Please model this.
Amino acid sequence: MLETVGLKQRSLLLSIVWCVLGMFLQPAFAQSAVQLTDPVLERGDDGVYLTATLDFNLSPGLEDALSRGMPLSFVLQAEVMRERWYWYDKKVALVERYFRLTYQPLSRRWRLHVSATPVQSTGLGVTLGNSYDSLADAMWALQKINRWKVAETQVLQKDVKQRLDLRFRLDLSQLPQALQFGNQASSDWNVNFDQSFRLEELTK
Model:
């Protein structure tokens, strides 16, 4: 029993070491640039909805980490800000969507959990989880934003300057501690996006 535990620990340590090496050996041009394509903001009866696509590819280092059994967590945030000339802008509303992408070597399938709260390592909680035959299929499900409710209708106000700040990033805090050290210096792990939208048109 003790030998089995020891083997599992050594195997995990070896995977982390390989990921650390891969993180620093990847070329600088491997950055995973994220673009938002075909964004549509629309006002419904009960809220403001966003439809769009997060267009990006995982770098070789991130794909390697996934194939070795390391989960990757992503965060999508939509924040409504009320602009004020006399003070800092005021946050009016914030909604978040969390993604946890994993590879299951035994079944050779990819698993994606989606939740409004951070997805724990157990994958339990209020999450929507689906399995996919390929990484491409799992990524397609992750990247598609289909009528995501980013704000309640009452948040919108006439004659007030408001904007929607949309952010997407790889959640580095969910990585093993051994990988959190120094990963900011590697473009291989730099997956992020930030874009703002005006909301005045939706109040008319």
